Every structure is written in C-alpha cells, then in structure tokens.
Amino acid sequence: MNKSDTLKIALELIWLAITALVAWMVLQPIYKAMYVWPFEVWNVVFVVTLITLTRYIFLLQHTFVARRQVLKIVLLLLMFPLTFVLIDHVNDFLTYIEERTWEPLVGHLPTDQQLPVQEYIWGEMLFFGVGSIIAAPVFAGRMMLSIWRQRNRGTV
Fold first, then answer.
1. Which of 38, 73, 76, 156 falls between 20 and 30 A from 139, CA-CA?
2. How far apart are alpha carbons 79 and 65 in whole angstroms?
C-alpha cells in the first residue's frame, strides 16, 4: 500500500470519527428526554448516511474510492435499494406518530417540555431522513459521472 492510500484511509477514519461525534451530538437531546427511543438505530443510520454520502458527493477525489471502478459500480447499484429502505423507515416514523401520537414517546415529560422535544425530534428525523433519501440517488449520479470521467478522461 502506497503512502497516498494510507493517508486516504487515515482521512476516512478521521471522517468516521467526526460523523460519530455529530451523530452523538444530534441524538444527545433525545437521549436526555426519552426513556425509550424506538427509532434510535434508524436515526443514527439517517445521520451517518447523510453525512457520509454528502461528503463523498463533494469530496470524492480525496477518498480511497476515487480510482476503484468496481467499487464505484457496486456503490452505484446499492444506492437504489438503499433509497427505498430509507423511504420505508422515514414512513415508519411518520406512521408511528400519526397512529400513536406523541404520547407514548414524550408523555412522561412535564407539559412545558413536551412540545420542544416533539419539535426537535420531528425536525431532526425529517431533516436527516429526507436528506439521506435525497443524497442516495445524487450519490448514485455522482458515481456514474465519476465512472464515465475516469474511463473517458482519466479524471475523477
């Protein structure tokens, strides 16, 4: 492994640490307010997916994926099912709130704290959920463009 690949992998690990820190910071208010958060796993998936895919969309040339055509094709093909899985889980969240209301989630909180927690959860889940849904097909397009550029122009 050459020095460039080693540096790119180190940069990737730094970005993963930053992503984990951001996910923890975003979820911290929910952890403080909730006894049980049934969407915890998917909330983390939304945050990590949005940050990671957005980073790859704009900074692809600085990643270890940049010159690996087969990996880019695999990632391109994985974005289609990922998009539908993300849509399904955002829909699960919306259906849960619609059918059960907020009472099971924030009913234990004092009345004056319920609305701010509801608004935070609603905004955060929809921002990261819808953002990740939009980022997945855009990322697929970026992979397609990168594959074409590398094949025809020799660039990323």
1. 38
2. 15
Q: What is the amino acid identity at position 136?
A: A
Cα-Cα end-to-end distance for the chain:
20
Burial class (CB in 10 A: 0-12, 13-18, 19+), 5: exposed
pLDDT for res 57 = 96
Token digits of residue 124: 């955060």
How buried is residue 153: exposed, middle or buried, by Cβ count under 10 Å (0-12/13-18/19+)? exposed
| Residue among 33, 40, 31, 37 at smallest CA distance from 112 | 33
How many C-beta neighbours within 10 Å does residue 141 have? 12
DSSP of 39-54: THHHHHHHHHHHHHHH
67-81: b (≥16 Cβ within 10 Å) or e: eeeeebeebbeebee
CB distance 129 to 93 below 8 Å: yes
Q: pLDDT, tens digit, for every residue of 77-101?
A: 999 999 999 999 999 999 999 999 8
Planar angle of CA 123, 40, 34, nearest 5 degrees:
75
